[in-house]
UniProtKB/TrEMBL annotation, chain B:
<keyword id="KW-0479">Metal-binding</keyword>
<dbReference type="InterPro" id="IPR017896">
    <property type="entry name" value="4Fe4S_Fe-S-bd"/>
</dbReference>
<keyword id="KW-0249">Electron transport</keyword>
<keyword id="KW-0813">Transport</keyword>
<feature type="compositionally biased region" description="Basic and acidic residues">
    <location>
        <begin position="486"/>
        <end position="495"/>
    </location>
</feature>
<keyword id="KW-0004">4Fe-4S</keyword>
<dbReference type="Pfam" id="PF02589">
    <property type="entry name" value="LUD_dom"/>
</dbReference>
<protein>
    <submittedName>
        <fullName>Iron-sulfur cluster-binding protein</fullName>
    </submittedName>
</protein>
<dbReference type="InterPro" id="IPR024569">
    <property type="entry name" value="LutB_C"/>
</dbReference>
<feature type="domain" description="4Fe-4S ferredoxin-type">
    <location>
        <begin position="322"/>
        <end position="351"/>
    </location>
</feature>
<dbReference type="GO" id="GO:0046872">
    <property type="term" value="F:metal ion binding"/>
</dbReference>
<dbReference type="Pfam" id="PF11870">
    <property type="entry name" value="LutB_C"/>
</dbReference>
<dbReference type="InterPro" id="IPR004452">
    <property type="entry name" value="LutB/LldF"/>
</dbReference>
<keyword id="KW-0411">Iron-sulfur</keyword>
<feature type="region of interest" description="Disordered">
    <location>
        <begin position="471"/>
        <end position="495"/>
    </location>
</feature>
<dbReference type="InterPro" id="IPR037171">
    <property type="entry name" value="NagB/RpiA_transferase-like"/>
</dbReference>
<dbReference type="GO" id="GO:0051539">
    <property type="term" value="F:4 iron, 4 sulfur cluster binding"/>
</dbReference>
Amino acid sequence: MSSPDAGSAREEVLGRIRQAHTAAAPQPWPYDDIDRGYREPERATALTGEALVELLVDRLVDYKAVVHRCAADAVGETVAARLAGRGARRVVVPVGLDPSWRTAEVEWLTDEPALTVDQLDGADAVVTGSAVTVALTGTIVLDAGPDQGRRALTLVPDHHVCVVREEDVVHGVGEALTRLDTGRPLTWISGPSATSDIELSRVEGVHGPRLLDVVLVGS
Amino acid sequence: MSTVLLGMPGLPPASPRGTGNLRGDEAFPDAARSALGNAQLRRNIAHATTTIRGKRAAVVGELPHWEQLREAGRQLKSHTMAHLDEYLVQLEAAVTARGGVVHWARDAAEANRIVTELVRATGSDEVVKVKSMATQEIGLNEHLEAEGIAAVETDLAELIVQLGHDKPSHILVPAIHRNRTEIREIFLREMGDAPADLTDEPSALAAAARRHLRRKFLSARVAVSGANFAVAETGTLSVVESEGNGRMCLTLPQTLITVMGIEKVVPRVQDLEVFLQLLPRSSTGERMNPYTSMWTGVTPGDGPQEFHLVLLDNGRTRVLADEHGRDALNCIRCSACLNVCPVYERTGGHAYGSVYPGPIGAVLSPQLTGVEDNASLPYASSLCGACYDACPVKIDIPSMLVHLRAEHVEEHRRQSRTPAVESVVMRTLSWVMGHPRRWTAAARMGRLGRLLRGRRGTIGALPGPVVGGWTSARDLPAPPTQTFRDWWRGQEDQK
Ligand code: SF4
């Protein structure tokens, strides 16, 4: 589009790659021959059940996220306590959030019709579910599903209350990838926003939510 | 295609002169000399790299399968480079199918032109930027500025560099040469809206940056990013970051333009399981970085509704044409090799001239530009091997440096500027160092140590004008009979 010879740039770059391969023939290395030797030790050390959940809690706390474990029928009150604990009054929710999770006495801002950026900026908190969580790295993955909403919802408000179901917790990154659909926008979250830019030490709280409350729901 | 084949059996062109930031103003030895005299700079860098080395070692030690992951990373990259044309075509088709537009850029100037036209088409005269090595490499900010478009860097370290009228000195943490006190002073002086009672607490500094950039994020219409990975199979792009400035740029604006080196493609989604484990542990020493975003083309109702992907060559195909150098394309820009490098630790990043400093810069920059344009960089190393040990995709930087030195000497010989005796010594060294087993054997027996040791017990005896210049500018003790590796480990233990 941008210039008359845009098409030739494509052909030329591809041609240069083939030219390079001719000048220095690459070693044949079929994809299926790639050594996946990391998978076996990974599987062998994978935890399950309560040990897996404890690992997750340990990792989350290490990132300065706050973790609250509760039973499936206590999510609403746990969420309410987290919101109240931070003084949140205007709270964003995606359309598909389980109604029993939103029992708190706050002003709920549902993302339908779509909230403006300024409305999101004016909100105190956001409550969402989650798609998959990696215990080993303490990483919660959002896939923009109905209980999570579009990406901006969990980005602009300063306080994110995220509900994680124990049945969605996996051990490693590889397992998480097999459960996810990368056709959807994915956000992998490991703790509140942070930076290592000052003397290479991690400091929590920059542009993303500065507070991350994780509500961990038993199965 | 026929136009290209006419040039056979030549080599693809290096990154052309004139545009971009791959070449420094002075040779490494000269630039290093002034850095070596700056005690504050050395202290800041030593403090930061010592911190990060400790954190990296701890999180790497947690994974029983780390070595297997490194090997898989190396093989995946080698496989991809052997099929690079196929994977790029596949990526293009997948991105296009999801509503993205793919552009190809032969060099920096072409990439800059493409981005400028895309920004112009939106009617905006400002873009927010996520830190990206590719756009630094091509000098995009300077180009946009000249075209009347303001480029706002949103990464904290980039902001520190931009406000400090400074240059980046590290791949991951461009302001690593600044300590908290200096950052506070820069913010108070340049930010305009920094609170008068700003302290030098990192959290207070981060909060000041948040306030400063907030409005920009919420109102920006165009963002420019790089990419850490692009999955050929699905067209999925990924940016790995910490602060949330990346998410802001990738989510809120209407238009997103991603500039990506062609070597960033990976075959399949599942391959990310390797790189998402290797990268954060190697770079910031975290089990996982705070935020990783993945997106595929355009998602209606969520994020930018216009997406452009610019695929950049700029000398990469030239690197691919060198059997001994092409592994430099496997780099995932983690910066672990910088953090363990004794030379980097003493000179900092600016001395390397190019936007790619440290060990990877010493092998990548001269290859992208042609070795004659960055001739001193292959000598900016003590060949201690720490970079190789730290590299998550096992790039053998020391062997590559030796190869490039030999190439440089050869080039000089061809232009008969180097006395024959020096090139003979150099070639002997290359022969010894060029092969891991010969190198280890020679070094272990202390022969190399004696060969390299100068009169005053410093490494000052390397032949050649450039080598001599560089080695005389530094004050590293030479290893009397130890290997470089052992010597370096010893240095570490003393800390
Ligand atoms: S060469 Fe290896 S260690 Fe250095 S930045 Fe690249 S991937 Fe990291």
